[in-house]
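Section 5.1 Outputs to date
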Amino acid sequence: MKTKFGVIPAGIQILTKAQASQVDLGPLTQLQGTWVSDPGMGWNVIAVPGPPQQEFVLEVIPYIETLTFKPVVTASNRGPFIDGVENTQQIVGLMYEQQIHSTCETDFCNARGFGKGQEIHAERGFFLNIQNLNSNFDVVRLATIPHGNSVLAPGTSFNTLPPNNNFFGTADTFPFAVAGRLPLGYGEGVYNTNQFPQFNQRNPNSFLETTLGSQKLASMTTLSFSTKNTDGGILNIPFIQQNIKTTDMEAIFWIEEIVNPTAGQPNIMQLQYTQTINLVFPPTGQNIPVVWPHVTVNTMKKVS
């Protein structure tokens, strides 16, 4: 890879700040730095098996998050020689670290073990920008999670301003059968109680749209990742694979430059995301393997 500092050798290299400033990160450029969310912006929705008298319990957990992208890394993948020229793939990217803590203060949250201040998720990995030989996917997310999961999610990026602010689509948390149909009314009972009326626990993406509101976008980069894309996937440790199989993950990140409502002030950098992880639970009383989508959404501001 040619830079101002010469050719970076094949392999993997973590760059200094001076070297990193000469590398084109493409759609990942604006991710560099630290992003944080205010209380009430992050939400986690997941169903888990309940006691015998309940098929499932729906856990809705508000959270705060710190998401840090650093430093810049480069990598080269050597390929075959074609017409005497070696095909070498060039990759640049960012290491990231994600830390999520509950802000829930309800009796339900405390009883379930995720009261305020409890860390409920930790993750490390890479966002990669593939600059050539990319097989239609120009970005990739690699992740490792202490539960015993490893994720490879190829994806695509684009820079397009939407015509309006209702571009988020739907993230449905309702269960569905692995094959066939669930019995009529199955799963509806877990939605009878809503501890947080301001949050739509059936479609968390609607909260992202409400949060964005009428803010004016100056620019926006979208990163869309999916383990269902070619050669993507999730690996699980045996306990998870045997009991609560994690089959696939889809996530969309919107890197938004918000027009500052105060004249003369710099624009505001905002990051919104939605992520759905499908969890397959063993056959229930209906003898049907059930998929419960695990959905997280958040809105974050760049602080450094």
